[in-house]
UniProtKB/TrEMBL annotation:
PANTHER family from the UniProt entry: VACUOLAR PROTEIN SORTING VPS41, VACUOLAR PROTEIN SORTING-ASSOCIATED PROTEIN 8 HOMOLOG
Gene Ontology CC annotation, any one: late endosome
Name of the protein in its database record: LAMI_0D05820g1_1
Pfam families: Beta-prop_VPS8 (PF23410), TPR_Vps8 (PF12816), zf_RING_Vps8_fungal (PF23413)
Stated family: Belongs to the VPS8 family.
Ranges for domain Vacuolar protein sorting-associated protein 8 central: 525-712
UniProt xrefs under InterPro entries: Vps41/Vps8, Vps8_central_dom, WD40/YVTN_repeat-like_dom_sf, WD40_repeat_dom_sf
Originating organism: Lachancea mirantina
Biological processes annotated in GO: endosomal vesicle fusion; protein targeting to vacuole
């Protein structure tokens, strides 16, 4: 919904017609809102102060060269690394020295190592918490600690250079290793936490011995056994101590290539897999920063993880409350905390990134340090401390200071970029992603507002003065555009510095500070901001100046903007009402009257006075007001929706209910109401009471604009206040109870007006409205049948014109409630007016389904509508199941229009007709469209194959359609799936011959058991084709193969079949030319070879296997006339191939016989030796078969039989019932048990697996 623009829709069937389009042209305003700072965050979200700063050629950081550093360090070697403290910074050199400089570039002291170690450079530097002690790790692994409080004297011999400080301690446990991390342990001066690439983490603690000499002891805290899967990368302890954190409970964080661990003393209190597999590459770099007790950050190559921790009461166990992740496209080399919500990190390519976020890390600033050429070193060449970066470059040391918020603003102001400066202030207040610590701004919004308020005031005045002065000579429109842009930013910002509901006092100061000739420009800008909703409260002084400006320019729209956009409480009601009356601002006048006096009925009463000509009685509208200019319909529409006119603000519920009830009692009153109440006077709409209509105020609205008036009535009917079944709790919720006006009462009022009016346009409009709402509220509205008949007659006999569609929907709604008794005239009228949808509703409701279906088909033929005809047929057949006469009529309609019905969905039609009446399928035989008929019959045979394949008419027709519309393969599959006895043989053969479907004909004849006749058909076709010159090699080969396959299946007629085929082949071979003979030779050879092999098998290899067929071939007249010399090469080659095949077969049999001879002997040997038995007991009787407990007689008999070596001994052994039999499967049984179960001597088998 736009600003105070409403678009309502009223359901009318499937269409949705806008009935509030007349409201859209008003341009009503709904500036009933105040934009707060949180609303402005989106407006300035895309403004990045750092990017705007770069557009001016400046960077967010200002670099200064420290030229004296390298000069002083030249004697001690090349600078390698830097480490800062608050009062000084240290530089490690390539010769093992640590130089202490203050920020004025003065060398304060030099920390030297022994001469033996001086050849190794400084790798790591660490400074104690109080800054009095420094430790350094060399590339050689040696670690030293120095005390900076040692007195240093200037040495005159060294040109005033300070005397070097010697180390307190020299720690040698890490020699020949690479030190990974170096840090003072807690707040102690001589305790270090050190890790190296051997995977060991040590705590070295300095102490005094009995002779008061400083020495140290070392303790191995943890050892990580480095390997290809896990290596130690970094470790760190907490830098700062906090209240409640005891010194003896120091914590250490460790990062390995697999996980992150926090140790308390030597126990693991938190372990986390960081999940960085680095795409299978080795992880080379990790960093840890732990400043805050509950916040810890660590990086593994290119991935940064921030953990928010929670601790138990004794700080011995940690848990992760929140985990934030951020990834980069390169490795991270440094991590530092700016605040509890901001980090600064450095990447391998010398980029500095500032990250911020409490719930999600986002980039707030990025710096590229490639321009300053940092030293190419693996050590720390750039570090951060106290809003500064200290960098070692190839030319000199540099210190970079981040610009503060005031310095950034100054850059914009110096370049006259005032709008950018103002937007910059807005971003400081609304963009929480900015690094406030670096900008020297407070992180809390209220304190930032105090910090920026005074600079903003000065900047706003300066920017306005500059724009007014610089654009004084410009075109007025250009000057106004510049001022509007600047004023918008100023006003938006000004609301950030005032509390909600306060007036913008600063605007008054701007207007007073401007010159008189500039006042009009500022006033226009301010009024535009008011119209945009940016300003809703002004001081009386500013408001007076704005009204004066509007009156001087006679600008009606500006006055309207002021009245509708500003808080009405600050307006002078009398002045505002007079202005509205003067400039005919009726929506503003209605609004002021409503909100100032909480009176919503007087405007309607004043409008009635104007309508009736009693202008002198008006107290709101002026007497010369034109009723056509007063938005009374819009006013009523808003109120009946519960909205404040002309704003889209919701009226309080109790007040809204009271307003609605009062309006209903007036609008739908059947008599003149008393107005003013208690005065005894009546609110007349006509000059005399005799001419007053029955419903005077409703009639007045219908006369003025029937469509808008019915919109008001429509809203009334939708109001839940008119629900007669509202619960008592709902009615008692406010001071207003249920209205006396009901939906039935409103409809009856409209019916009375409908009967009395003579205007056909209004009559039709009322009839349509009543019809649709009666259907919409059936539980609240009831009409008599006579009333419905009158409404039907009115709508069907009226000239509807553009309301035809609406009228037809109304007719459908009424016909769904009642069918007239005398419907003949109604049907005639509906056909004349082409109300076909309504006519279909009538037929459906009156159960005239034959006419219903006939009309739907008629409309489809004329492209009048898109109907699902099959669904209509299904509905008609279903609903006439108990009305035989009507069902017969429906079937006759289906028969007449069968082709049209099945055209859309023939597959679905088959299913419908099969379910309701299968006799309808016979109509398919008369369909002229062959493709449609084929599609229908295909589905019919698929659905109910057996029922219709036996029907000669259907099956014959379908075979013919298959010949015409389908590939022959589909026809063949059909013939194979059909029992040939169910088909009418002669018609089918005739069809197949007519369409030349030879292969299908052969398949059909084979199915009829006429195989020889099928061969004859093939040979006749081949002969005719060769004779006529239409011979095709591939087709002929296929037919020859098919013929040989058929002949193989012949029993008694196979000789005749071979004779026919061979005769045909020889005749064709004699007819064909040389090139064609060569192509056809393969088929002939196949047939002859197949003939010889199959004939030999059938005749058991006898000589007559070739005689009878060949005799018939050579005795045939066709072959006798051929030149046998032409056939000699082919026959010789075939006989040669046959001889070779017979020799191959003979050799194969010999090979198999020789191979099987040894297998038979091995088998006989195994049988004699017997098989390995698996079971120890007989599965039948359960007695022992072998082993301990076996009867000795069994062994004696077996030994006698084995010793005799004669077959008689074995036979006598088998006749003994005590002996056992073991089968090849390993199962054994007593012989007697097998005999008792019915087995015989020659047919023993295993009872378990049935094997012999």
């Amino acid at each position: 919904m736009g600003d105070a623009k409403i678009k309502r829709y009223m359901d009318i069937g499937d269409q949705r017609t806008p009935i509030y389009g007349w409201l859209e042209s008003l341009g009503l305003s709904s500036n009933d809102h105040d934009t707060r700072p949180e609303d402005l965050s989106d407006e300035f979200a895309n403004f990045n102060p750092f990017e705007e700063l770069r557009k001016t050629g400046n960077e967010p950081i200002k670099w200064s060269d420290l030229t004296r550093i390298y000069q002083s360090a030249a004697l001690y070697g090349r600078p390698k690394c830097v480490y800062p403290a608050r009062a000084y910074f240290t530089i490690g050199t390539s010769r093992g020295s640590v130089l202490i400089f203050d920020y004025k570039q003065i060398l304060k002291c030099t920390l030297l190592v022994s001469e033996e170690q001086a050849i190794s450079g400084i790798a790591k530097i660490s400074i104690s918490l109080d800054g009095t002690h420094v430790s350094a790790a060399l590339d050689s692994g040696d670690i030293f600690i120095w005390n900076l409080t040692t007195p240093v004297e200037k040495d005159g011999r060294n040109k005033g250079e300070p005397t070097p400080i010697q180390p307190l301690l020299h720690i040698k446990e890490h020699c020949y290793t690479k030190v990974l991390s170096l840090q003072f342990y807690g707040a102690r001066h001589t305790a270090l936490l050190v890790s190296d690439d051997s995977g060991k983490i040590w705590i070295h603690s300095g102490s005094r011995n009995r002779l008061w000499q400083l020495t140290y002891s070392s303790r191995l805290l943890k050892q990580i056994f480095n390997g290809p899967e896990k290596r130690l990368l970094a470790c760190a302890g907490r830098i700062k101590a906090e209240k409640g954190f005891r010194s003896d409970k120091n914590l250490v964080a460790i990062v390995t290539s697999q996980d992150f661990v926090i140790y308390y003393q030597e126990e693991t209190i938190l372990q986390l897999e960081h999940g960085n597999d680095n795409f299978g590459l080795p992880i080379t770099m990790a960093r840890i920063s732990w400043v805050f007790h509950d916040l810890l950050a660590f990086s593994v190559d290119d991935r940064l993880t921030v953990l928010r921790l929670s601790w138990n009461s004794d700080r011995s166990h940690a848990a992760i409350k929140e985990k934030l992740l951020w990834s980069c496209d390169e490795s991270l080399t440094e991590i530092n905390w700016l605040s509890s919500q901001a980090l600064i990190v450095m990447t391998a390519s010398s980029r500095v990134v500032v990250l911020k976020g409490a719930t999600e890390l986002s980039t707030s600033l990025t710096l590229d340090l490639l321009a300053i050429n940092l030293l190419a070193s693996n050590e720390k060449t750039c570090t951060f401390l106290n809003r500064q970066l200290i960098a070692l470059t190839t030319s000199c040391a540099k210190i970079g200071s981040f610009l503060s918020w005031s310095e950034i603003l100054l850059v914009f102001v110096q370049r006259a970029l005032y709008i950018s400066a103002l937007k910059c202030i807005a971003s400081f207040l609304t963009n929480e992603r900015l690094p406030f610590y670096l900008l020297r701004l407070d992180s809390h919004l209220p304190k930032r507002v105090e910090q920026l308020e005074s600079p903003y005031r000065n900047l706003a005045i300066a920017s306005l003065r500059y724009v007014l002065k610089s654009s004084a000579n410009d075109d007025p429109e250009i000057q106004l555009a510049k001022m509007k842009e600047l004023f918008h930013v100023v006003v938006s910002l000004d609301r950030l510095f005032v509390k909600e509901g306060e007036q913008l006092v600063f605007i008054e100061g701007i207007l007073e500070a401007s010159a008189p000739e500039q006042g009009d420009t500022l006033a226009q800008c301010l009024i535009e901001e008011i119209s945009n909703g940016a300003v809703s409260i002004l001081s009386p002084t500013v408001l007076s100046r704005l009204f004066t400006f509007c009156e001087s320019h006679q600008d009606r729209q500006m006055v309207r903007t002021l009245i509708l956009s500003l808080k009405w409480q600050q307006l002078s009601i009398d002045l505002a009402i007079r202005s509205c009356q003067q400039y005919k601002i009726y929506d503003g006048l209605l609004y002021l009257w409503n909100v100032a006096f909480t009176d919503y009925l007087s405007p309607l009463a004043d409008f009635v006075y104007l309508y009736s000509g009693n202008n002198e009685r008006c107290q709101i509208f002026s007497q010369d007001s034109n009723i056509n200019d007063i938005p009374i319909f819009e006013y009523l529409a808003f109120l009946l929706r519960g909205w404040q006119f002309p704003k889209c603000r919701q009226i309080p519920n109790d007040l809204s209910l009271k307003i609605k009830k009062d309006l209903y009692n007036v609008i739908f009153s059947g008599a003149l109401v008393e107005w003013p109440k208690g005065s005894g006077k009546r609110l007349e709409t006509c000059g005399s009471k005799q001419n007053e209509p029955v419903y005077p105020y409703l009639d007045m609205l219908l006369v003025l604009d029937p469509a808008k008036a019915l919109t008001i009535v429509h809203d009334s009917l939708e109001d839940s206040l008119l629900d007669e079944d509202r619960s008592e709790s709902e009615q008692a919720g406010g001071s207003v109870t249920q209205s006396d006006v009901t939906r039935q009462f409103i409809i009856e009022a409209l019916l009375d007006i409908f009967q009395l009016t003579t205007k056909m346009n209004l009559k039709l409009l009322l009839a349509n409205f009543i019809a649709k709402n009666v259907v919409k509220y059936p539980q609240f509205v009831v009409l008599s049948t006579d009333t419905i008949d009158r409404l039907l007659l009115t709508i069907s006999s009226s000239d509807c014109g553009p309301r035809k569609e609406e009228s037809e929907e109304s007719l459908q709604a009424l016909l769904s409630l009642h069918i007239p008794g005398d419907s003949k005239h109604l049907v005639t009228a509906l056909r004349e007016k082409q109300f076909y949808f309504a006519l279909m509703t009538f037929y459906s409701r009156s159960q005239q389904y034959s006419h219903f279906l006939d009309l739907a088909l008629e409309l489809q033929r004329s492209n009048f509508g898109n109907y699902d005809i099959l669904e209509i047929v299904k509905r008609s057949l279903k609903n006439t199941s108990h009305a035989p006469i009507e069902r017969t009529l429906v079937k006759s309609v289906v028969d007449r229009n069968f082709c049209q019905i099945i055209k859309c969905q023939p597959t679905l039609a088959v299913q419908y007709f099969q379910d309701f009446d299968p006799n309808i399928h016979y109509n398919a035989l008369s369909v002229s469209d062959k493709a449609l008929k084929f599609q229908y019959l295909s589905e019919l045979f698929r659905l109910v194959f057996e029922d219709y394949v036996k029907n000669s008419a259907f099956s014959t027709t379908f075979v013919e359609l298959l010949c015409q519309e389908a590939p022959e393969e589909e026809l063949i599959n059909f013939l194979k799936s059909v029992n040939p006895r169910h088909l009418d043989k002669e018609p089918v053969l005739s069809i197949l011959e007519r369409y030349g479907k030879l292969e299908s004909l052969v398949v059909f004849l084979c199915g009829m058991k006429a195989n020889l006749q099928a061969v004859t058909r093939i040979t006749d076709y081949l002969t005719e084709a060769a004779t006529a010159g239409t011979w095709n090699c591939q087709t002929s080969k296929h037919l020859v193969f098919l013929a040989t396959h058929i002949i193989r299946g012949l029993e008694e007629e196979h000789i005749a079949g071979w004779a026919k085929l061979l005769t045909c082949l020889m005749v064709i071979y004699g007819i064909l030319g040389e090139s064609e003979k060569h192509k056809f030779q393969e088929a002939v050879r196949f047939a002859l070879f197949d003939f010889t092999t199959t004939s030999r098998i059938r005749c058991n290899g006898a000589h007559q296997s070739f005689c009878m067929p060949l005799t018939q071939v050579f005795e045939s007249k066709e072959v006798m006339f051929l030149k046998l010399a032409n056939m000699q090469p082919l026959l010789t080659e075939v006989l040669s191939d046959l001889s070779v095949a017979q020799q191959q077969q003979s050799f194969s049999f010999k090979i198999i016989d020789n191979a099987s001879f040894q297998a038979v002997r091995d088998y006989e040997s195994l049988v004699q030796k017997g098989w390995l038995i698996k079971n120890a007991e007989c599965e039948v009787c359960g007695n022992k078969l072998w082993g301990i407990g076996l009867d000795s007689d069994v062994f004696i008999k077996w030994k006698e039989a084995r010793g005799s070596g004669s077959s008689n001994g074995k036979d006598s052994l088998l006749e003994d019932p005590k002996i056992l039999i073991v089968f090849r499967c390993g199962h054994g049984f007593h012989l007697n048990c097998l005999i008792r179960l019915g087995q015989t001597k020659l047919d023993y088998f295993c009872l378990l697996c049935k094997s012999a």
